[in-house]
């Protein structure tokens, strides 16, 4: 095991109708809340916006709404939010949504406390100096953003997607109310499931510590649980137990817990997948279900043992530790992606293949930002070929 | 899944030689640290005391030593510590030791901030009003005390052992330096392993939620990892990987994470085992390895499915879901306890059997304090018979 620090100050409030406690949570920070969420018409149609506003009104917290967050949230919108926050000076920022809304709020929380541009903070060109307090109400369980200090935002002008980390961005409180996810379409649920699996795979298959039974079993068990949840949800999208379990799995999949002690690892799944979204606005989870098989195939020869154990433990595949078993693990995962209806190739994701060279360059920019030194352009191009 | 709140503000610093950072950690709280640990002669012989003092001196933190904590720490000693703390007014309390030292410091932290007696706080007769900041340096991985807000202390005069919970008792920082555990005798390591397993079993086998795959797999995976660690340590007690892994498993076994969402559950393993220690000063882990099989046998008929899955998942026992497989799971666990050298019966623990009636009464006092209503005296006596 490698040395690490683990410190997640976020308080989780989990359970059906917990959204009703949003008002008392917000009131501990002040009297004015900036509520950040998706398109106004959409959120008013699905009901959670009204619930959030009601809970805030009940505790006499003034609501400053900020609508319009989209999948792969943009720095352009965040800059508008920063402007509004600087003018209106809310006491707390509330994200009501999934990863894109939470990541928007995180960047906004930093941006509101500095004169630097948010994109410069995301790229590391400028330093954050403080943050407004953040509360999240999760409506799409997928990214762990509710319990980590990571934000991933896009810059449409630059065609870049940037992930960055800052302990100031830990939410103070995250409300996980599974009831809010019952109405999530199964298609989007499947994309989220792929995202959760990508988090559990990223550290698990890419770390290089030869003996980490606690962390590996955690990842395996969590992936199996996502499989179980999706089996139930494909039959009944309103299954409360599966919705609740998926929500809690999502939170601990990428909050920094299971990667404790496994040492430094490359994150090729996200490194590659981010560019899919940057280029074609592919939903994050769909980008992941394309990049995971590509990355696994690319590294197959050097990871026979790990993939074989993955095949046996997660998919119950019989067989020895050898290339055949390892390949069967990849095939089983691809089969599962197909079963839940997420793309596993460029073709299935309807992504064109005429910009692979530019995409490889973009991937290498991400690699450089993340300190990943393993991949040359030739390697990235070969990896992309395995994703087609 | 059931509603829950999860909030562990403790910062973990994990890695070999992390104890050297104790000074800078303590200095963030002030210039005077009360260092609570075991018998003076003992701690000065094993080396970690000198390391702790050195690290504190390096950062000009004054050290106020408080020696003498024993296994099953007593309120009598804690009262002395409270007196000292009230006179000397340290800025931070540092526990250097295992569960008994950490639990002593937790009670002391509350006691130093109130006029009420510590035992009254433990029993709930008085309310805590504040706490001195707590830092722990773990030398025996077992109790999760380094990352929870529980303290278990004994009252020799009353022959009672009392566990109590207060969020004020979360350590601010816990330093997990596996190197400090290399010299832990294998006998004591095995007792600690039994303690860790007792934590992982308590919620897992006693909860009543029919579908909690995430939590159940976590418990199973963690127990298997304890088994793996002990296999390695029985061969080589200095195995750094096994020591490090055991330390991290111990921390997450009873910090409140895996029981999130499984709903209310009785804690008969600890309810019963606490009285073994209260009556005969049996080391906590040894009390657990006696109480676990007794509790499992007592509930066998109504937990066929759960024990069968336990047998299959943890011990790889083939078989259907039936009483035979369930019993095989209990037998395998007892076999493992014997293999690592911890007692599994009153006889093996050298506990007399002439006070069972009084012990049953004591167990029922604990049950009442913990809100456990399942067990009558007749049931407790029957359960104790299964432990003989």
Automatic annotation (TrEMBL), chains A, B:
GO terms for molecular function: alcohol dehydrogenase (NADP+) activity; butanol dehydrogenase (NAD+) activity; metal ion binding; methylglyoxal reductase (NADPH) (acetol producing) activity. Transmembrane segments: none annotated. One of its GO terms (cellular component) is cytosol. Gene3D superfamilies: 3.40.50.1970, Dehydroquinate synthase-like - alpha domain. Keywords: Oxidoreductase. InterPro entries: ADH_Fe/GldA (IPR001670), ADH_Fe_C (IPR056798), ADH_Fe_CS (IPR018211), BDH-like (IPR044731). Residues 9-178 form the Alcohol dehydrogenase iron-type/glycerol dehydrogenase GldA domain. PANTHER family: ALCOHOL DEHYDROGENASE YQHD. This is Uncharacterized protein.
